[in-house]
Amino acid sequence: MISPQAVIVCVDCGGRAHLVQPGDAESPYRAGDIATYRCEDCLDRWDLVVEAEDLDDTPDV
Predict the structure, then answer these.
(1) d(Cα 48, Cα 7) in Å, to the nearest integer?
(2) What does residue 49 show for φ and ψ, rounded to 5 degrees?
């Protein structure tokens, strides 16, 4: 499945921000889409534009 990283570092507090909506086979992320993350520590929401290099195309095992 092609999807941005599941967890990123929160820009505000340095905590772990999780991808809210993972991609799926019927609607994978594409460059230019918006990926929403929520930080587990400060609860901030981050809406990031997906770049082509952000997409992970390694197969799920």
Answers:
(1) 13
(2) -75, 130
